[in-house]
Amino acid sequence: MTVKNILASGIFILTIFAFPGVPAYADGYEQTFLRGNEAYMKGDYGNAVKNYESIIDRGTESANIYFNLGNAYFRSGEPEKAILNYERALRIHPGDAEILANYKFVKSSIGGPVLRRRGIWGWKPLKRYYDSFTVDDLFFISSGLYLTAIFMVAFGIFFRKFMFRMTVVTLLISGLLLCNTVIAAHKAMEIGKKAVVIAQDAKSRYGPFDSATVFFNLVRGAEVVILQEKDGWFKVKRPDGKEGWVKSGSLEII
Amino acid sequence: MISDHMKKTILLTAILVFLCRTGFSQANRLEADLERDRVSIGNPVYLNITFYGSQNIKRMEVPEVDGLRINYVGPSTHVSIVNGKVSQSITHAYLMIPSKEGEFKLGPFSAEYEGKTYYSAPVTLSVTSGPSAGMPAGAGPVSPSYRQSSYQGSPSPAPDFSRDRIFLIMEVPKNTIYVNEIVPLTIKLYVTNMGLKDIVFPSFAHEGFSTDQWKEPEKKQESYNGRMYNVLVFRKNLSGIKEGTYVLGPASISCKAMVQKQSGRRRTTMFGRSVFDDDFFSDMFGGYEIYPLELESEPLKMDILPFPEENKPRNFEGAVGDYNMDVVVTPEKVKVGDPITLKTVISGLGNMDTVTAPKIAVTEDFKTYEPQVSRKDNKKIYEQIFIPKTDEITEIPEVTFSYFSTKDVRYKTVKRGPFPVKVQEQPETQETVKVVSMGGDEQIFYPAEKLGQDIIYIREDIGTLKKKGIYIYRSPLFRYLHLVPLVLLAVLYFFLKKKEKIRTDERYARFLKAPRHASSGIKKARMYLKKNNKELFYDTIYTTLREYLSHKLDIPKGSVSPDMVGEKLRGPVCGDDVREMIKDIFKGCEMARYTSSGVQDIDDKDILDKLRKVIDCLEKVKI
């Protein structure tokens, strides 16, 4: 066995361990997906939704399935579920222009207030960066910065005369690494906590009970972050920072 | 005429200016002391914890002690100037009422100042069952609703603090209210024939209610059970949070009673100079005795009712009170895309916190934004922007607001509108054509394109499939792989460090290469032995051993001799057998090299074996 063969085998094994979850055999999914497309083309949006959802129910997902599912929901008159599925598609392919276009179109068709995120996460350049990558992408960027920093340190140790310059570069890279990791960690923390309002006129109250005073209304399709769960109620936070309690059935997690 | 307040301000400013000029010379320290260290059960005693050096020290936590009821009284500050040296201090006073006999050790207490922690010495309080020295005879509790104590240890008999001279009453106009309904709470402090000072705002348990801030207390005179009292009235609003039956209070209040000494010259005032003023000059004249008091009112039972379900309007969101609504729409004539502002003012009496934006049945023909809210006294103002999308709009829909009227005990809905508006088509702008520049002088004018809008069509292929909820960054392998570069970096670092040492430390370099050279020498010797070339074999054995010992023991090659080596290896480093083997090898080599007959008598393999053993042994020990 040559060194080249050993290396090739190693990389293959690493790939298997590091990137789990890619289905080896996807023919069944492909056929279901095409059946969904066929139904959509015939205007049978309900059937299209069923086909697309049956793939997702089997524990598999792709940005294209969510995209088509969002379209089918929109055509069947459920724009809030369309938004939910476009959000899910964007979670997998954050920068996809077509998904973004449909998402914005459906969002504008619903209306409602345009709420800007408050604080540092509402800063436009940061938000653009945050929204352009998946959580895995962000962690890969951190890994790349980490490797570069290590390489710079090694280079400085090996070639002493570059030590000072390498130290400066390493410090800069470490700063970038820290910032990127904070962003990645924030994004990772939001997984399973971001939700879309699917109920018509969901009311956010001061407490987790029906008689509590209504604080604000949430229009369908609005995005919130779940902070806490209690007795069938979610404590949610709107992008503008307002917090209140909403019945758990009014939301669906992205 | 300069007012008291002005005098105080001038005095304080002068002190501050002086402080800035002179600085503080005092060393920081924390001290704890008891007013008396021996008291009887039920008699209060003050614990004073004083920090010298700053006045910016928060109250210290005094842990709960079984047998002592400890209440925080408040801080008092002190600044003194002696011979131009300024010292300042803050004293936090705690009132302790013992309920058990015994010795109580309190402290040491600690305070943090400028990042440093200061500790006081502990204090010990002895509580006896009998009356203690220095206490007024009748200073025990007179009524279950209040307690009293002597502050200055007066030898005179304790004054009368009975229920008809001083008491506290908590009142609400009604005991049954609805959720969110506001009810005014009044706490009255009645007192006659004595002065009070250092009165703090009352405190009371209010589970099930939310409260707002205390209003400015009011002083008045009032008759109660046929007797005139000076009354201090505290007011605040309560509102019920959740339905149920709750107990409000009891309310408690702490203050100090100023009772004229029997031989005193001054007359007792009602509440000193002001209800919260300190007695800035009172001690200068004497004539009063100060008694700290703690008064308690009776609790109140309250019922909070839920909103009735009958006739509950669909858009009711919990507003309680009696309200009116005014709506203004401006402008009434707009073009498509221009904003119309709908200003709604809800005013009236009730819990304004529960008032939410009025409901408007907005159609798809409008683009709307979240209403902006502002509040002014008993008014809540909502301003909402409506942008008409078409010129077919003729009105802004009706505005409705529902609330529960506690006065009439029923739901009410106020409706305003619809409001007629005139929407005109947006005129064509001048930018209806685009200029496209071409090469040369030719230019083509295109009319502005009207673009339709819809969602982008579905995708034909399924895309890259992945399992739901699987993220690479969560994989343990992904995390552990990050350790590899660190390990490699450490290896590289130590490798380079060793290389550097070899380059700069000749002794170390020779020490390291000794076993490698010896190993190649042994190989060579074995080869000569195979070829039966005894001369070269012994030459190699001799050279190998001499070089090895020279490198290993850091001695010149020419100085290597059995005696010198024996000397170097003396002690616990190697056993005698190693030294003997070295001697044998040297002896054997010399015999073989210098006498022709000697070669016959020597066992070649034994020599080679001994050489290997010597090297093995010296490699294992630390030299």
Question: Can you summarize this structure?
Answer:
Chain A has helices spanning 3-18, 27-42, 45-57, 63-75, 79-92, 97-110, 124-132, 135-158, 163-190; strands spanning 60-61, 194-197, 202-205, 214-218, 223-230, 233-237, 243-247, 251-253.
Q: Could you explain how this protein is built, in words?
A:
The complex is a heterodimer of chains A (254) and B (623). Chain A contains nine helices and eight strands. The radius of gyration of chain A is 23 Å and the shape is globular. Chain A is α+β, with helices and mostly antiparallel strands. Chain B folds into four domains: 107 residues, Immunoglobulin-like (Sandwich); 159 residues, Immunoglobulin-like, CATH 2.60.40; 98 residues, Sandwich (Immunoglobulin-like), CATH 2.60.40; 118 residues. Classes of the chains: A alpha+beta (254), B alpha+beta (623). The interface between A and B is large, with 62 and 50 residues. Strand 1 of chain A pairs antiparallel with strand 36 of chain B, so a sheet runs across the interface.
Structural class by secondary-structure content of chain B: alpha+beta
Q: Any idea what the CATH architecture of the largest domain in chain B is?
A: Sandwich
Quick one: how many beta strands of chain B?
A: 36
CATH first level of the largest domain in chain B: which class?
Mainly Beta
- Specify the helix fraction band of chain B: 10-25%
Q: Tell me the number of structural domains of chain A.
A: 3
Which regions of chain B have little confidence, pLDDT < 50, spanning 5+ residues? 8-25, 131-156, 263-286, 430-435
What is the element string of chain A, with H for helices and E for strands? HHHEHHHHHHEEEEEEE
Provide the CATH superfamily of the largest domain in chain A: Tetratricopeptide repeat domain
* Content-based structural category of chain A: alpha+beta
Mean pLDDT of chain A: 86
Rg of chain B, Å, rounded: 49 Å
* Quaternary structure: heterodimer
